Amino acid sequence: MFIRVALRRLLPSGRWVFIVKNSIRAKALELGFSQVGFAPASGDPRWKADLNAYLADSRHGDMEWMAETAERRASPQALWPEARSVIVLGTNYAPKGDPLDLTRRPERGNISVYARNRDYHDTVKKRLKALGRWLVGQYGGALKVFIDTAPVMEKPVAEQAGLGWRGRHTNLVSRRWGSWLFLAEIFTSLEIEPDPPEHDHCGSCRACVDACPTRALDGEGHIEPRRCISYLTIEAKAAVPAELRPLMGNRIYGCDDCLAACPWNKFATPATEPDFLPRVELTAPLLADLAQLDEADFREVFTASPVKRAGRDRFVASVLIAIGNSGRIDLIASAARLRDDPSALVRATADWAVSALAGQRAGQL
């Protein structure tokens, strides 16, 4: 501590800030983070206005937690008044190969890239805590660590910290990592000079908008979550509207289409973290196998997986929608068996899947 204090007295303030920021960056990269930026904890008044407009339009759907935490979500200091700076961290999870390959194999279920192995929250949080302990030991101050389960406006603060910009798909785009970044934050009581914000580099590109299967993007940087497949397969409590089911294809948990379409992904490097690499059994799972999962099987297969969040009934209902869209007449039996399932949601979706396939069979006669 004495050496640090003495050094700070000897160096010009700008030089000291430079050393501290470079030191934090180096430690974060050493711990496995891919990108690091710094933002003020005051936030931006536009974030709250945008959030209020989003909620007023009821675009949050069944995500009541967004409305319940709106005041704390408005800015980092609204969540933790002692915060003075935010260290924003990105972790690369870019897939190897075509992330949409399975969407062209209708007898298989397509699970979003981020959910094909362990829950990333566990991996990222360990790194966050390690960086936090090191930061306090080196420079003091108080801090709190957050990943996306907390009411933090992650994408706006990441943009402000220079990690990237929000593309037309509303997600963060990095010139270095494309659209494949997990975000996390450290709120600290230390005053750290912020980095310059990143500017929009989408230009006239609309690849993500055109790629969305359900037309959930308006092209102006806004999303209608109630049409988004990620929302429909993970967050929604009610049955998927009948008119949207045929558009979902075999996407049974989340959707990567808008992310995968981004041209900036050509600069991304495939992730090497073992926890982010797909488990063998989830690389190309058969719909017929997934439709057989009862509650105990579901919990066993998806232990430590983000897919658990959907719950067995919601997940199997999504599998049934994929079966109905598959055009595979041989899957009628898999759907018909679930017409007597204990879950009303599963029973109703099984009826729809059987009808969809039966109609396709009739059309082939």
Write a structural description:
The protein is an alpha+beta fold. The protein has 16 helices and eight strands. The strands form three sheets. It has a four-stranded antiparallel sheet, sandwiched between helices. Strand 5 and strand 6 (172-173) form a beta hairpin. The longest helix is centred in the C-terminal third of the chain and has 21 residues, at 344-364.
Briefly, what is this?
The chain has helices at about 1-10, 15-30, 45-55, 65-70, 70-75, 75-80, 120-140, 155-160, 205-210, 230-235, 255-260, 285-290, 295-300, 310-325, 330-335, 345-365; strands at about 35-40, 85-90, 110, 145, 165, 170-175, 180-190, 250-255.
**What letter string, H or E per element, gives the SSE order?**
HHEHHHHEEHEHEEEHHEHHHHHH
Distance between the termini: 82 Å
What do the pLDDT scores average to?
92
Low-confidence parts: 1-7
Major β-sheet annotation: 4 strands, antiparallel
Can you count the helices?
Answer: 16
Rough shape?
A: elongated
Helix content: 40-55%
Which structural class best describes the helix and strand composition?
alpha+beta
Spatial arrangement of strands, main beta sheet:
1-2-7-4
Radius of gyration: 23 Å
Roughly what fraction of the amino acids lie in strands?
5-15%
Number of strands: 8
